[in-house]
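Exercise (ungraded).
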Amino acid sequence: MAINLTSKKILIAEAHANLRETIKHIFGSLGARFIVEAESGVDAIAAMKKDKFDIVLCDYDLLGKKTGQQVLDEAKHLKLLPVNAIFMIATDEHRLGLAPNAVDNKPDDYLIKPFSLKQVSSLLEKCDTRKRFLAGIENEIDSGNLFQAIRNCEKMLELDNKSMHLQLLKMQAELSIKVGDFKTAEKVYQDILDKRELPWARLGMGVVAYCLADYDNAVNTFQGLIKQYPAMLEAYDWQVKAYEAMGNDQLALSSISAAVTLAPQSILRQKKLAVLADKTDNIDLAQKAYTAIIELGKNSIHRSFSDYSGLANTYLKTNAADKALEIVVKMAQQFKAEPEAKLRAALLEIEIYREKGNERLVERAYNKICELNGQLNKQIPRELRLNMAKIFCLNDNREACDEILNDLVKTYVDDKLFMKEIVALCNELIGENYVETLVESLTKELVDFNKEAAKLFKKGDIRGARGVFEQIAAKRPHNPKVILNLIKIILHDIKTSGASPEKIISTQSYINTAIQLGIAHDQISVLQTALDTFKNEIEQ
Amino acid sequence: MSNTSMLSINFPSLLTSSVHDIKNSLRVLRTLHAQLESIYQDKKHIEFKQLEFEANRMNNSLMQLLTLYKIDFAQYSLTIDEHSASELLEDIVNQHSTLLSLGDIQLIMECDSDLLCYCDSTLISNALCTLVNNAQRYCLSKVLLSATQEDDYVVFCIEDDSSGYPENLLTSDCKKLPELDMTTGNTGLGLFFAETVAQLHVQADKQGFIMTDNNSRFGGSRFKLYLP
């Protein structure tokens, strides 16, 4: 039975007017009434910002140099596509050279050009059937309830739909990894592999090993896959992560270099290469990668001023101050409206003019930083703020330096990796006990807050206790205990004074934070089940 | 020493660049063809369909060359997954049905809707498309496309009512590209591609392979692709 498109909103992005007309005719024969046309990627994005489309058919080669893949990336990044929308890329390449990988978004399917009415109809039907079958899972993922998505997956597996069975198992395993239930994921993958060697299931085993910090095993798995499937980009991407986690940046660099050689058009992978090359002092390679990123970024949502500052930094490392200045000027021109770009430019200018021996311009750049610091305050990435603290300290502006460091320590005291960076900087510039003293006072503050909350809880003032925990969570957003206690207190509040949509949404949001913080799966699972029970009660 | 022996020509790279160039030109040509067809859509000009058929053949051959190059240089990303054999065949039928009907050629499909296979569907579809194209070229009126389970293999089969494969394609080792038959212009690239692609599919101790014979149930040629 042919799919009926009468009620569907459709976007056709195709560079050639006659071909658009032909495609429109094809969709029209399938009943489509609401069809919007776009000839370039920019037009396609503008149309998606205006309307929510059910189906997008986007040519790979569009006008204005933005590819169909870049349109998809941007649409996903800006959340322009409804969860059940179908996005198809029309190409005469048929995925050749568009190898699947871990960093790019995947369309629902590819349509090989030229295509007939039958091909469009059959592919749409296939995508629609799959989307409708998986809607119960996708909707839960979209609303952030991963545990419910897993339960729906399990229920649908019981239906024993042969053609969707493996797809469901794949989703179940991937979702299990997301919620930290690595044992289930491992079992699902192993059961599949016991029956048949499938590359994605083997990759899944490597990912599980990585998540369990069994990096040797993970690297071996990814290596085995690369040996068997030398162009499997996902295996390279995960291998890079594993090497980084092992602290072996050289091997991570070598893996990412191999992946970039296979797929040089991927801007995100080029970014990884640039950062790793820079970190390992492979300056030539870093410069090459940053230059490629700037070129690729012209039509990409991932275009960023940090790539320009990264490139300028590499020139500074090789004492090419003039070249660095040239890049900084370009960055300022390209990102005029971005205050953060101005700040990055000023930070670089200090080093550039110092290198050139022009103290007057060094001072001018420093004054610009002070001014921007006042304007932007906390709206700057943490690494950049740390860099600013260093600049202030080196310029004897301890007040501004302390203000930033105090705030960073307070916010990230529970983020072990970033705290390492703060401690290293403070030890180098200020003194060994600086961070320790700050951390001690924060620990005391946390204990005091907990006591106050416990007192209110004992008195039966659940809302008061919740308020205190919310204050703590705002101050310590990365503290697992704080987040868990807050979830528990809201659940208790629901139990004693009833559920409300606000409480349900708020609890789900904190549960998702707990998942992101890597809190053990069994601890979160119990809380999610309790929340779902309350949720069902108010829905009935 | 001649001048030519001193030149270092990296022929595979040169060939790949040329193939890319030809493919780009072919893309423009196919776009123009589609535009012309949309202008003259009321009149079913058989020449348009012949043009489309030949353009598709050229595109398939170029795709195969590029894919073989990538496989040879370990740059092809083999994506093995579970697929419905009938959906795979339906896609091929959908791609060819209009063309075949214009030439009064019947394309029949036989496949259990529950049959699943494990393969890189892009590669397998490309290989089968080319061989259906060939069958269409040489058959009288019928092409049968089927898929069945035979022991540990899923077997895709293309049968027609042509006069059968020539001797050199029945006896040749498809693992090697056969000599070009100058009288027929037959390159054997399609079979070589199918064999290469089949061999990439491995499960435990089983490997994919192809077979050609003239035992079609219509009396013509029969091609079989075995996937473990």
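Further reading is listed at the end of the chapter. For now, observe: Chain A touches chain B at residues 16, 18-19, 21-22, 25, 92, 94-97, 99-100, 112-114, 116, 118-119, 122, 126, 162-163, 166, 196-200, 229-233, 262 (CB under 8 Å). The beta strands of chain A are 9-13, 34-38, 55-59, 86-91, 109-112.
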